[in-house]
Specification:
Distance between the termini: 77 Å
Helix content: over 70%
Strand content: under 5%
Order of helices and strands: HHHHHHHHHHH
Oligomer: single chain
Length: 195
């Protein structure tokens, strides 16, 4: 009944699907084993995947085998929809269980910005349990950030990466901040003209 009312509300102009998302997520929290059925009721693929990830998070505390099934279904769903941001979210979710699998998912993501975001989130998830893996993920994010051509985007992402580093290595964070500053300075310096 409440779900039907929420669907009516979301059909009104200017209303978003936030109410329905909360209802379906709550339902998924109560019945995580039915996450796939609940997600299939979602009107948008991204919403369905987020509901599946909610179910996976609840199951994380219950049954590892069920978690893997839900994560595999979430991955298949993200691949089917060709949703790069959602693939990033799936990689982040996998990183808590299987970092190698998370890296395989990450390799499927094309936008470098999405890979950087995912790597930073993954590094945060494993920081307490495996500081060395966290450093490796941050190093990889730095390599990805260095590939960005747009000066503004490069500076933005280098600052994010430096911020993540500052929690574990202040000197490395300073080096990355200097790298961002240098990128900015180089973009504003006049280019020599050819005579």
């Amino acid at each position: 009944m409440a779900e039907r009312e929420a669907r009516k509300l979301t059909l009104l102009p200017g209303k978003e699907n936030k109410i329905l998302m909360v209802i379906l997520s709550t339902q998924c929290t109560w019945e995580p084993g039915k996450a796939l059925a609940i997600a299939s009721e979602a009107p948008a693929p991204l919403m369905g995947a987020k509901i599946l990830l909610t179910g996976a998070e609840v199951l994380r505390q219950r049954d590892f085998g069920e978690i893997l099934k839900v994560l595999e279904k979430s991955l298949a769903y993200a691949q089917k929809e060709k949703n790069q941001r959602l693939l990033g979210e799936v990689a982040i979710a996998w990183s808590a269980r299987d970092l190698d699998k998370a890296m395989d998912v990450l390799a499927q993501i094309e936008p470098v910005e999405t890979r950087i975001h995912s790597l930073l989130q993954m590094a945060g998830k494993v920081a307490d349990s495996s500081p060395d893996k966290s450093r490796d993920l941050l190093e990889r994010a730095l390599r990805e950030g260095s590939k960005i051509d747009s000066v503004g985007d490069k500076i933005k992402h280098l600052k994010e990466i430096a911020g993540a580093w500052s929690a574990i290595d202040k000197e490395q964070a300073k080096k990355i901040y200097r790298q961002a500053y240098q990128a900015a300075a180089n973009s504003f310096s006049p280019k020599p003209s050819n005579p």
